Amino acid sequence: MQSSTNTAAMIEPGSIILSEIASLIDSFCNPDIPSSKKEGAKRLLIDHVQGGRLSINDGIKLLGEYLNHATDEKIRGSAYAVLHLILENVPDQSMDDDQQTKLVTTLLRFITDRLYDFDCLATLVPCLFVCFNRWFSLISTEQCTHIVLQFFENVNVQSMASTSGVQSATKTRGMCFEWFNLLIDKFPSIVKSVNFLNGFIQSIEGERDPANLMTCFDMVPRIIELFDIHSENTEKILTGISDDLFDVTSCYFPITYTPPPNDTRGITKNDISNKLLKCFACNKYFAPSLFPFLLEKLSSDLIETKLEALEYMCYCIERYGSSVVEEYLTEIWAYIKAEAVKTSSMEVMRKCYEFITRTTRVVVIPNDPSIRQFDVPNIEAIVRTALAELRSKECKLAAQYARMLYACGVASREISVIVFNRVFPELITVLSESENYDKIYGTFIMMTQVLQALAEAFTASHLNSIPQNIIQQIGQAQTLFISMYEEQFNKDDKEMILVIIELISRFAVFRIESTLLKDVYVNRILLKSYGEDNKSFTLLHATSLDEYKDRSIKDISWIYKYAPDIIQKDVIIPLIQVLYECQNRSEIIHRILSVISQIGTVCSTLTPFITEQLFERISFNLTQSNENREIEKTKIFETISGLDLTTIEDSQKMKYIRKMIELAEMEEDVVGNNKYNNHNNNEMMTDEDPVEAEIEDSFGSSQCGTGCGHNHSHDHRGEMSHICLLLNRSLPFEKQQQVLDELLQRNIGVRLSGPSIKKFASVFSALIVSCNPQVNMTSIVEMSGNLLSLSLQNLHPISVTSSLSQAIASLLNKIPIESDEFKYLTSLCNTLVLEPLSQVLNGVATDTDHILSLDRYLEVLSWILKGLVMRGAYLYADAYSNILCSCLVFDFPQQHHSSKLNKKAADCFLTAIGEDENSLHKDNHALVQVLYKQRFFAMNVRKLMDSITTTSHQPHIVGSILLALSNLIHNVPTSVILSEVKNIFPIVLKFLEMRPSLAQDEAQTEELIYAAIKTTLTLLTDAKQEMAVHLSAIVPILLETAKYQRSQNIRVLSLEALHEITIGFPYHEIFPLKKEIIRGLESCLDDKKRRVRRAAVKCRNAYFVMSKN
């Protein structure tokens, strides 16, 4: 810099500190020094200011020549920045009020005089703002008025973008708007002046930054709130500025903002739209411009615009009130009626009905004696038009107008009575006089909607307060309906039957005595099953009957909501009776149980009765020689498991648990004679080939089903153990203790030594797993050695091993960690499970029996690990997880089974970290440490990745490691895995490249490939930045797996992964691959499976329309 502008030369000798400060200012204002190198000077200046070593006066003296530099706006701008830094950080002065006032006045005069310095506003405006923010109490109204006038005269806020960088200009405009906000708070009288309002409108016009827009929209309601609505001057001012204010804000409707990639501000379209909505609604003087504007937008072809226009209009009507909007209602109603009738969008139609309801609450004032009942245009128009439509020849729009009647009536109790009294008598007249199908159908629909509006407006607790004359008219309509519904019902017209069913439910809630509910819902619909020959249903397809059943269940739910006492046992009893009368026809039993389940689900108070009746049915079946009784029992348990069992009394819960224990004990007697049990126990070893039978038992079928998503979790809903778990976990711990003590008195050791213990073991385990930690488990711990030994033997199905393992895991999870029982149990697990596995891995144990039991050892180990990890007992869990990692890569004896054991070890990670509501879970009182999954992931992911470098790179071992990683990845939050993406994906890629060598092992190939593709999709979705470099490697593989013929799930998942690449990845990364992908997807368009074809079309279209934007 030139020496003439060097402030250090201006300092008096001996002023060392000021000399240092002057040097810092010289550096800060030097335009030749990059901004990045000025940060140190800035921090030192702030320290001097906050330490009181640099006052405002001294600062201005040191900045003098810089502030007045005639030719270089960069120097002046830097000087203003230093001044702002001083003003913002200077401590409260020791000067008296007069001195402070004089200083602030001088500062503001200086800043105001510099407002013409347009190129430096980015640093000058913050000075203005900080003066007002810190010393507003020292600023007089006259001075503030002068500053405001000078600001609007010299500063064109929206022109700032043309003279400085976009980011800097946006920030400066934002500072201007923050100053306006400050004026609204501190100087409301100035804000209400016409000069400020006109300047404000000019300043916000054309603003495009979303954050600044939200600030602007937010200021408008705050400004309007400053005015006294009863003042004549208010009307004059607001009427004068409202047109201009509406013009500059309405241009943003509808909001079409889409956040840019990597946006950090978190502003959404809805955020901006909500601010604009409140801006429109704050000023009733907008009405002459607002309603024509929104009605014009309502004619848009875009569904989203229509919905937004309806919401804005409705909200503004609610805020403005009836006196303001009354003159516009006729025109508004014409638009709403036309839109509700002609639209093909259900969203728009529902929004129109919502609009009618909400506006009706505003414009109808039943208690105002000056307004006649139908003096308000839109209400009378709805009623009059609906009745005119009903009396027309064709009557094709009755359903739409019926819904409009509902929308009016549901607004309030008073309005529902008004609508009912106006409409219902005429509906009765039309129904009694007409024989025309369309008129009868339309009348039924309108009656349904009017009655529904009445019930919902009065709510369940006030239905008894409905006027008696209305109840009499409903009774008259019901009598008329009963006289004619039979004829209409027997015509087998689906639409007519559906509306009849619905109307019956609306009659029912008003408790006018009739047998309609039972005659139609129960006898005619719910009791019907496929194949029954009944004249009322001879023309109906099974799908129609299902639709009637669904409609009936939905209406029963509606009745239960408003009149729960009507849905009583007499609805269930006929259904229960059919179970005894259907001669054990399984298709009828299944259908009736399905209906009972649906009713019990929607009517929770019936659960105790339904449960009691179903258990009685099970007891009855035990006395019958019915070959289907096990199938029916399973279906009954499925039905019970879908009910809300918490509504059952504790004594009954205990009774049912005892019953299921007895049923489980009876298994030993019936297993040999029951075909169903033989089928379900086909896991048992055969005499012909015990080794092969055991392998099938351990690892399941070699073929994945067509719906394989490779989550082979078992559905427990039809099992006794699941019901025991649901019942027992909802008992208080004292009752649980009683159940457990009774169970122990049954000589469990003998029960578990029988030849068939599958069901008893599962029930026993469910009761242990569902116990509260407060229950005394000492007796169970004492027998845990026998339980562990039994679970490790290959004498029973592996499901027995799983059940007993869960019981052991629950003990490890819930017993106090410092107790002797816990120490004994962990020692036992180490001796019986950990040490034998260690011996196998070290080559010590090689006998055939031991090898055949390895899958059971792994199963037990996985549950022990889960119990310990969930409670955070990592000191004990580490040894088990280390063994599990070693089993992943170990080449077990008898090579042809090694790959299955490796995969079993991978599945153990899913057991250890996965969620299972039927085992260790917080709902079953398990102890769960916060973030235990993240901790387990961190403990093991590095071990697994290190294993890759130490393996023989056999495909099945790499695949097992990948499957273990996949099981971990899909059970922890995305944020946890992001740091490991660069290490995880190379393993996935390596396996996918090795997949041809897995082809000979069809039993595992499909599941491992699915896990690899699923992991890839997860990473493509959540770690785009890290995955961008791998696109060229993964795309060819995905194109190949998209044609994998043995699994449509793999094909669909591959296509979804390819589609994910079109979302959020840089265009320059995708473009080189675009042609290859489009060409590679051609064969998928002809896939034999519809799901695959649909996914291929979606994916290919995404690449066709992809562009740089």
UniProtKB/TrEMBL annotation:
Keywords: DNA damage, DNA repair, Nucleus, Repeat. The keyword Heme does not apply. GO terms for biological process: DNA repair; iron-sulfur cluster assembly; protein maturation. GO terms for cellular component: cytosolic [4Fe-4S] assembly targeting complex; nucleus. The keyword DNA damage applies. It is found in: Nucleus. Its main location: nucleus. InterPro entries: ARM-like, ARM-type_fold, MMS19, MMS19_C, MMS19_N. It holds the Pfam family MMS19_N. Gene3D superfamilies: Leucine-rich Repeat Variant (1.25.10.10). Residues 60-340 form the MMS19 N-terminal domain. Key component of the cytosolic iron-sulfur protein assembly (CIA) complex, a multiprotein complex that mediates the incorporation of iron-sulfur cluster into apoproteins specifically involved in DNA metabolism and genomic integrity. In the CIA complex, MMS19 acts as an adapter between early-acting CIA components and a subset of cellular target iron-sulfur proteins. This is MMS19 nucleotide excision repair protein. It comes from Naegleria fowleri.
